[in-house]
Specification:
alpha+beta; five-stranded mixed β-barrel; 7 strands; 41% helix; globular
């Protein structure tokens, strides 16, 4: 079984999401150079309380945006496939793991659920003063991931989405989460308007 190189970070990468990274540690310079040369992904897993979680997402290196003279680099990655760690391997300077790739069950969200999720997302983005820009092609298959990836929301919730095995289950969770945070965000915006403040909503 081939091993997947791992990059533990204090974030959650979701399938289809773009993630720029600044690579500076020697072990991760070695890892990314190997991945670029062999055209293979690495895995990003959330590092929490000095431990790594069991479920992560592969990161495909799309481009090397900048290469520094001292060996550091700026790369742009995109989330790929979800995986579960079966066995960690510490034979290299960076972590590797035997992994099992997760596939969805064939439970599609209903049109009503998709419209509701889009509507709530648009409301949130409007409150944040941002454009609600959804890719229609991605939205059909993994709307839940796309809706959440662009928002600075709770990492525990993002991580929970990675573990869910159907789009319907994920989208229902997203709808419930959006409905729970919208009232407080609206109150923040109203308070800022009354105070004449220019603070960020989220």
């Amino acid at each position: 079984m081939s091993l997947l190189p791992l990059f533990p970070l204090d974030l959650v990468l979701l399938p289809g999401s773009l993630l720029p990274l600044h690579i500076f540690e020697p072990r991760y310079r070695e890892m990314t150079a190997e991945c670029i040369a062999e055209k293979k992904p690495f895995g990003i897993v959330r590092s929490k309380d000095e431990n790594t979680v069991d479920i992560g997402c592969t990161a495909e290196i799309l481009t090397v945006a900048k290469q520094y003279p001292d060996g550091r680099s700026d790369i742009v990655t995109r989330g790929g496939r979800r995986f579960e760690i079966l066995q960690l391997n510490q034979e290299r300077p960076f972590l590797q793991a035997e992994v099992f790739f997760l596939e969805d069950e064939p439970d599609a969200a209903t049109p009503t659920e998709m419209r509701r999720a889009r509507s709530l997302y648009t409301d949130l983005m409007t409150l944040a003063g941002a454009k609600a820009d959804l890719d229609p092609a991605t939205a059909r298959e993994q709307m839940s991931f796309q809706l959440v990836s662009s928002l600075p929301i709770d990492l525990d919730f993002k991580q929970s989405l990675l573990t869910m095995r159907s789009e319907q289950q994920r989208l229902r969770a997203v709808i419930s989460y959006f409905e729970s945070i919208l009232p407080s965000i609206k109150r923040q915006v109203q308070a800022q308007h009354k105070a004449g403040g220019n603070g960020h909503v989220m």
